[in-house]
Amino acid sequence: MRQAALLGNIHTKRTDYLKQAAAQAGLPVLFVDWKEFETWKKQLAQGEWLIKIDPPLWDSCQLAQLEQLTKAYREQLHGLSQAARNNHLEFLNAPDQIAQLLDKRICKQKLKQAGLAVTEEPDDGRYRIDTPQQLFRIMRTSGMHQVFIKPVSGSGAAGVTALRWQPHTGRMALYTCAFVHEEYGLINTKRLRHFSVPGEITAYLEQLLKLDCVVERWYAKAQAENFSYDLRAVVLDGEVQFLLGRLSKGPITNLHLNNRPIEAEKLPIERKTLEEIAFLCKRAVNCFPGIRIAGIDILLEKETMRPRIIEMNAQGDLIYQDIFHENSIYRRQVEMMLKWIRTCAD
């Protein structure tokens, strides 16, 4: 018998609103908590399963633990991939592809190899940057004096840092949600901080660059209502299911930082640009076979409105502006599950 399952976390909006959509459609969905993952894995031989994988919850806010936590998650995903070889398992998102998308560098390399427009890297990202001195040198030689610095692992703006540097004057400005804690080192917060003292910025960068980071050009973004904005596209089976604008006065647009969401229809985006966004998203998910659900962050260059991919997230489908209204994203996922079950019945 074919069955649908959600591997996730109890009492979260992801779980509650998928279960709500499933109940409305009359679809029984087995919920499995990540805490019971190892026990449940032994039961997979019973029947055929279509599994949606939601990310585990992490309690730590220490950025130094990001790689360790991500490694443990990759091992769990690998366990699911191995189990699929010996059991009748299918996934809304294949676990090995989720694992690839956990690494911003690997994701960007695959998109670039496919010829897609992504945020550029100084020196094309050929060298890892481990110190502030290396960073300033490559910013000078590339002429890229505004950059974002991001740990390769993590989401939700964890460790994301925007840096502006004027090499002729030495003036600097840095924006981040992280700060250096005396006991725990770099920790992530939900508050955007601004630094302008070069010594403080260099000390912070010393800590951040000890993590494996990617460095990207900081673009001037399209504007609306005196805010700059970027977009989150939720893509299901290659089609943009939901498109949300994120308005911000600062360089980091994540909505949990009290930035302002706006329906894409209310933004001054021409139909031609929307079509380019849809085509870009379709090509992006095609780079990762087995990915049916993705959240893709996109910027529009201020002068040209050219779309570029900032990041992809295989589990970026939770949009409050949708779940509190039509819940269309999770209803569509339930339809995907129902279609799989009915294919067997037919």
TrEMBL record:
InterPro entries in alphabetical order: STM4014-like
GO CC annotation terms, alphabetical: cytoplasm
> What processes in GO biological process is this protein linked to?
SOS response
Q: Which GO terms describe its molecular function?
A: ribosomal S6-glutamic acid ligase activity
Tree of life domain = Bacteria
Q: Which NCBIfam families match?
A: fam_STM4014
Q: What is this protein called?
A: ATP-grasp domain-containing protein
Organism of this sequence: Eubacterium plexicaudatum ASF492
